[in-house]
Each structure stands twice: as C-alpha cells, then as structure tokens.
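Section: Multi-chain targets

For targets with more than one molecule, the full set of components is provided together so that the structure can be written out for the assembly as a whole rather than chain by chain. Components appear in the order listed by the source. The example entry contains two components.
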Amino acid sequence: MTYDFLQHYWCFLVSLLGALLVFLLFVQGANSMVRSLGYTDEGRRLIINSTGRKWEFTFTTLVTFGGAFFASFPLFYSTSFGGAYWLWMIILFTFVVQAVSYEFQNKLGNFLGPKTFQMCLVVNGLLGPLLLGGAVATFFEGSNFIVAKENLVDTGAITPVISQWTNASHGLDALLNPWVLVFGLAVMFLARVLGILYIINNVNDEDIRSRASVRLIGAAVPFVVLFVAYLVHLLLKDGYAYDDTGIISIVPYKYLDNFLTLWPLTILLLIGVVLVLFAIGKTIVSKDYIGGIWPAGIGVVLVVLPLLLMSAWNGTAYYPSTADLQSSLTIANSCSSEFTLRTMFYVSLIIPFVLAYIVYAWWAIDQKKLDKQEIADDHAY
Amino acid sequence: MNDLLLNIDAGSINWARAQFALTAIYHWLFVPLTLGLAVIMGICETIWYRKRDVFWRNTAQFWQKLFGINFAMGVATGIILEFEFGTNWSNYSWFVGDIFGAPLAVEGIVAFFMESTFVAVMFFGWKKVSPGFHLASTWLTGLGATISAWWILVANAWMQYPVGCEFNPDTMRNEMVSFFDVALSPFAIDKFCHTVISAWIIGAIFVVAVSCWYLMQKRETKLAIESIKIGTIVGLIASLGAAMTGHKSAQSVAEVQPMKLAAMEALYNGGTDIGLTAVAWVNPFVQPDYLSEESAPLKIEMPYALSFMATNDIHGYVPGINDILNGYTKPDGTREPSADEKIARGKQAITALAAYRKAKSEGADENILNAQLSTIKENMPYFGYGYVKDKADLVPYVPVNFWAFRIMVGLGCIFILYFAVLLLMTVRIPWLSAIVRRLLAIVCILPETESDDRCTIATLPKWHYWVPIILVPLAYIASESGWLVAEFGRQPWTIQDMLPTWVGVSDVDGFSVALTFILFLILFTTMLAVEINIMLKQIKKGPKS
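Its structure, encoded as tokens over all components, is:
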C-alpha cells in the first residue's frame, strides 16, 4: 500500500460515510414534515416514532464522519471547523436539540410541552440538511481561508493560528453564494423525498401513506430541478487542480474532466440517478408500492459517493481556498501521516462487520411495520 | 516568540476553555449514569433471561426507561465535544490530529455504531426479537458505551502523557509512530479503569436512592429490595475498585505530571518522607504564595502517606511546586531541569524549527539542515515551554486541584463505608450481619431489634432512606471533582509539555465563542431541567404503568 493509495482509500471511506449520511437524512426529511404528514396528534406520534427508531444511525454517522475526517484529513478538520465556526455551530445546535426531542417530547414532566420539541425536530429537519448540503457545496465552490503553517514559529504573525478565515463571517458567507444555496436546498428537498419514501415504507397507516404520496411530488420536483441545475453548473465551472509537486492551479472544466476521466464513477452516478427517479416515479404511480426507500437509498449513495470523490480524486483540490490558491486543501497536503493512515486502514476492515450487524438489527426491528397499536406501548416516544 | 502571546485574543482563549469545560462537565453528568445503569439493567435482564420471571423483566424495563431519558442527553452533549476540537482548537487539531484523530475515529466506528444499533433493539425490540438477542442487545449497548469511554479516555490520557509520537518539522505536526503505545498507554489504562469504575458508583447510588424512595413511600417494595441488593454489590465493588485504581492513577500522575500532584497536595516544597495532607487552609479563591510559604497553613497530614502513594516507598521523594520550578535531582540521580531551562530549550527548539523551514525553502545545504534538525530533536521534549512567557504560568490553580481532590477522595471513602454497611443489611451472612448490626445499634445508626429478621432494609426508620438520596448529588460532585483535578491539574497544557492552551486555539473572535458559550449554557441547562423533571415524574410513575 503506497501513501497515495491510502490517501485515496481514506477519501473513499469518508465519502462513503458522507453518502450514507445523506441517505440517512431521511430522518430529518420526515421530521421536517411531521406536522403536514402526521396531521393529527396520533399521526405525528407515528412519524416521530418511526424516525425515532433510526435517528441514532444518522447521528452516529455524522459523528463518525467527523471522526474519520479528523483522523484522515486533520488539516481539513482544523481549517473548516475552526474557520467556518458559525456554519458548523448552527448545524451542531440543531442536531443537539434533535437528540433529546424524541425522548422528551411526549414524556410526563416535559414542562416545555410536546410542541416545543416537535418544533426542534422540524428546525433540525430543515436546517440540518440545508446547512450540511451548503457545507458540502464548499468542496466545489471554495471558502475564504488561508493556511500558513509558518505562523507557529513566525513571531511576526498576527496570531500563531495556522488556519485563518479572511473575513469575519466565520463561514456564514458561504450562504451568500447562490450555488451553495442551490446545493443546500437540493439536499434539503432530497431529504424530504427520502423521508416521505421511508414513512410510506415504515408506517402502516393509510392516511399517512396517502398524504405522503401527494407530498412526494412537491418535494421531488424542486429536488430534481435544483440537482440538475447544480450538476450543470458543476460541469461547466472551473476547478482547482494540483500537480505532482503540489502546486495548485485553476483548470477550466475541471469537474467535467473528472467526470470523463473517472468514467466508472460517472456510470455509478447515472445508475444512482436512475434508481432515485425510478423510486420516485413508481411510488407516485403505484399506490401499492411501498418499497421506494430502498432503490432511492441505494441510488442516493451511488450519486453522492461519486460526487464527493469527483471533488477530491484525479488531482483535484477538494477544499479550494478562494483567498489563496496555494492554501487549498488536497488529499495529499491535508492528510495524516502514512503510518496513521495505514493503521487506520486495518481498523477500517471491521466496517463490513459493523454494517452487517446494523443491517441485521434494522431488519429485525422493521420486520413488522409501525402502527397505531405499537405507539400505545409504554416504550413509544 | 513570546510576542506571539501578546497578539492572541485572550478573550477567545478563555471563552474557548470555558466552553469546552462547560460541555465536558455537562456531558459527564450523563455518561456515568449511562455506564452505571447499563451494568445494573444488564444484570436484571440476565436474571429474567435465566428465570423467566416477569418481575425481573419489568425491573429491567424500568431501569432501561430511566436509562433512555439520561442516554439522550449524553448523546446530545457528546457530539459538541468531538466537533469542538475543530471549531475551538483548530491549531491543536492540526498539531496533534495525526495522533488524536485516530481514537476518535475508532470510537465512532467501533463503539458509537454498536451503541446506537443495539440501543434501538433494547428499547423497541422486546416484542420483535428473541429474548437472547434482546439480552445481547442490552449488554452490547452498555459495552458500546464502555468501549466509547475507552477510546475517548485513550485520547484524553494521551493529552496528559503524550507517547507513541514524533515531531515532523516538514509537516509541522506530531505524528504517530506507535498505535499500541497510544492505545495501550499505562496512563490510559489507569484512567479508563478509574473513570469507568467510578461511573458504576453513580449508577449504583442512583438505583439504591430510587429504590429507597419507593421503600419510603411503601410501594414497589420487591423491586426496591432486589434492586438495592444489586446496586449494593455493584456499588461496593465499584467503590473499592475506584479506590484501588485511584491509587494507581495517582502514581501515574506522580510519575508523569508531578506539577499536578504538587497542586493537588498544595505541596510547595517537596522532599522525602512526605505526609499526605488530610486538610489544610488553602483559600479557594486565591492562588497561594507558594514561593514564600513553607507549606499551606493549618495543615493536618498523615505521615509518610504521600511518599508512599507516589512512590510505594514511605521514604520516597516527592517534588513540590518550587522544586519543579527550580529543578531537582530525581531519586535515580538524573536532574530535572528548572522551568527557566525548559523555557530556554523550548525557545531553542522553536527557533531551530523556524530556521530549518526557512533554510529548506531556500534549498540550503544538507549539513545545515541536519544541524538544525539535531537541535530540534534535542530540545523537542520542551517544545511547548518555548511559548511560555512567565514561569508562574506553569503552575496550575492550586485551590481547585487541592479541594477537588479532597472532595473526591473524601466522598469516595463515604461511598465505601455506605455500601459496606448496606451490604451487611441486605445480603445474608447471619453471624457477620449480627455483629455489625449490634455495633451499629450501639452507635445508634441502626435501631435495636428483637431479631435479625426484623431488621431488613425494608423496615428501617425513614431517615435511613434519605441517606442514598443525599448521596446522589454527592456522587456527581465526586465524579466532576475527579475531572476538575484531571483537567485543571494539566494546565497550562493542552498537551503536557508540548502545546499550551493559548497556542492550540482557533482564529475565532472572543465574542463569537462567548455567544456560543452562552447559547450552550442556556440550552444545556434548560435540557437538564427538563430531564430531571421527566426523570422524577418517571420514577414517581413507577414501573407498573
């Protein structure tokens, strides 16, 4: 295993976690529509109990995504989290309130009332995917930062901090970029599409299923429009490339070049798109079809994984700096040492085992679909 | 180099520290109960699995319900901690991310997924999976939480005692050279054992307290008595274990963080045959004048005990704060440099590093580069001292360390005594119980009874039941005090001798960090209030409903 291979391998794993995270945002998507999909108190409880059996997966994947990024590309962790402070903090806030909302909302003694925590779920459902999508969009659109390792020893430096944002927005400036918003909104509507498909599959209630089918069109249309718009923009935009010496330069149509050069990934992406469209279309057309979440989920992973890899593989700077070209982060200049990446490679070999027990536990819990009778149980949220 | 310090926004550093302390303290309010309850509910469910007595299933479900309320808060506060390393400590994240990131990633892959997968089965799978699978899920939830504790404590231990790494001047960071040295550091093992075992004490006291409340209310008697038995056994084992691992932990501190030990003991001037301070007057609000005072006033000590605790030898040498600042000769004859020497050598390392990088960028001769590399390597153990402006900054805040240590140890002794007495009252060892009950009756702790059978935990006067209820907040205070000692005693270092706190921060203005601190404070406090209220209502509701 060469150092170069390990860098690509860890980029793949982090991207895979990112792709799985986007799929698992169905929890947020469904929660964002808890009031409209649920309609009645009982209906809302069904939605919340349905996503409540899965929210830990989303949460854990987010945390592991962060941990894996830290271990494999610490300069990104240092630069992005320390620089885009407010962007990440708002994301974290929404996930913190989400984590307690399930357990607290319907419990005796909740003096804030169930609506407070349901509102927290809605806020997380809207802002979580939007801002996470926005943060991912900066992988293509860039951010205003400078990396200067010499600061650690340069007495003339303003501060000894090596990664600095060049403006005082602490990451919120990203949301002023319309393309970041387009991507963020695309992820938000995708989460809603997935949320609807999941609820149709997981909740055995005709009222909710019929309402969900109607709302699927309203979520799918903006998602498709926004996603296609961003994809076209991506194919036409310049990208940051690095050469063997690590020098970074702007290359016209860099991402189009990546799509052509990394053609197997492009094929995967197209298969993913087809699967997502198939799931949406069949669910809309067929009233009896409730399995849309599976082709859509696999499709989303097949779309997001190649998309994230396009941002980093083929000599591409995955975290471009719009303030200083040479500060842009690549998988070569921001990664951990060869020893650490190799050690973590061996640790990562247990991931298939982890995935296997997750799939088994998921299957065991979901064998029987959630219904009104089950939420009368004392263990329900 | 010292100029750097003048340019850093002090507000940002202090707020960043305050924010991390806040989130860590809140997080640690919930984790110990998770770890402790996991053991007790696991035992209850195991008994149900073996006996198939519905009482034990209900008992397990009841404790699992309380576990769930607490668990959510632990998860919510935990996510902030991980990301704060990046948001508030970005220099740190780069400088040691090559080592520090690995335990966090392993924690996510190995522990968090185990916890999150099986906790769902535990809560919602009673009617959906087989009893065996459910029992396994319950234990795996607890195991996941414990493995998570392992990896985060490995990371924390590495900050106290950095091993298995080397500085790379080309990448300007420390890099891992031995994963096993990091993952199996003796400091990490001591820390893990002490921390997790002390967490079981909280679980045990909580269970006993809730059970005693039921006895006071004369309801759920069977659940209460059986839970007290389990809680007592777990509590006694854990409190004895915490004492033993605490001793081992203190020896590790004496070996690798002598300044922390000196601060814990308010030991200004060390020597041989040093006694352990039982109590002394250390003003909680003022850093003592350790330079001119011989020792803390009104000191009552146990002769030779500190020497023994630190070195396993009653005549062992223990350095005090002034010895560490001025340099001293170790028992093995080697000399520990003074703070001034360390600062000078740290500056040498940083200057050589700057020169090396400049020379390399200019394509300098190999010999010049090697000479600079040699200077860097020679002085690297003191690298962090190069950022220190005043050697007084090297002394942690003594009052917090001194009092927090005493609170932790004092309360720990009370827990051992309490669980020992409780064990004799709940577990049948007739002859021993009779003797101890007679003794306790003589000193008026237990009532005189006609026969042993009448004096059970269920028939005690009401005030006895208040004891564990009062011990619950004290157990939390003891637990948090342990963390105060561990973290305050490490100051001024983010990583011992390697990186002071003020060099590890992010480039975020003080106002932003202060604002997020206040938001977290409001959010966590509100959530804590809701949680306590829900917990109390759930306890009041009981297991039957």
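The first helix of chain A runs from residue 3 to 24.
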